[in-house]
Amino acid sequence: MSDIITAIAPVNIAMIKYWGKRDEKLILPLNDSVSATLDTSVMCAKTSVCARPDILENEIWLNGIQNSFSNQRLQNCLNSIKAIAREQQSVSEEFLSWNVRICSMNNFPTAAGLASSAAGYACLVTALARLYKIKTDVSKIARVGSGSACRSVFGGFVRWHAGVQADGSDSIATQIADSSHWNEMRVIILVVADTKKHISSVKGMSCAVETSELLKYRVQVCVPTRVKQICEAIKDKDFSTFAEITMKDSNQFHAVCLDSYPPCVYMTDVSHKIVEIIHKYNESCGAVKVAYTFDAGPNACLYLLEKDVPEVLSLIKHMFPTTSDDFIKGLDAPTTHIDLIKEFPMNPLEPNLLKYLIYTKLGDGPEIITDESHLLNAQGNLL
Known about the structure:
Layout (H helix, E strand, L loop, with lengths): L4 E6 L1 E5 L4 E3 L4 E2 L3 E5 L6 E9 L6 E4 L2 E3 L4 H17 L4 H5 L1 E8 L9 H16 L6 H8 L11 E4 L12 E5 L7 E7 L9 H11 L1 H24 L2 H21 L9 H17 L4 E5 L5 E6 L3 H11 L8 E3 L9 H4 L12 E6 L5 E3 L14
Parallel strand pairs: 7-9, 15-16
Antiparallel strand pairs: 1-6, 1-17, 2-5, 3-4, 5-10, 6-9, 7-8, 10-11, 12-14, 12-16, 13-14
């Protein structure tokens, strides 16, 4: 019988967005993207895997519910791992013939635009690679599960190279800087909705590639320059440049979604209010202190430096009043009274427009759990 292998893997939030593929099957992007990996102690996917002769067919359980194993991307990940294991002769042919049982859970909303698939597939391939004892760059394998999952394989700041090879061999992720490089960086996620989005990213991307003229310009002209500039800003810890590029790219990404036919609308009225508040706050400060970015969903991810956290959190709580006793989730998040609120050029919005917020920081890549806190018991069954 095989051991139970359990891994955890982080969420990543892109500053330069991935939207559109040059190859749907291999999940090869049209452009490079750049992201930050978040702390797994606050948001993570956790996956346990085992292979046994008494498992009658491959199984996958997501958040306690059994799902079909017919998902081609899931099969591609498992088959890729097994092919490498066979090539490296890391396990026996008998072991390779056994079916697998996979159990995975997220401690954050799934399919709500919070990069759940990225964390999930990065976690899966990390656990499977250990199960089959292979040595390889797992970012390439994670990519065939979910494109942005290759970025969750590394901590800190990460670049996913689009590559030019037809087989995708050069479409990999590399680390720009580790999580300690810019340890003052903090992240606040404003959860507007934690339900499944009405247009999947896969469908939205496909529609944009087929119909958006703006996407073509973005890929050819805008992204190459932005990637170079934001990588330099990260290395130099130049927050003003980092923030401006991040917001511009988020705006353009959603403009591409609107330029698609029919349009894909992911942001809501509350999302747009967040954008307005952040710009007015930066203007009031006379400097860019906060950057917003929105993935394919209504939820905002704010990047800011640790010194500005108390003031920004106070502003958010002022502008988005809540009756919740559990509004701030994550690390200890200090707030403070600020005089700016008295003069802020917007009135507070109606209560409970935000469900909650998550306060966190940068973190490291996936890791194997060795403390026996598995999702499967010693017999490979669900706990």
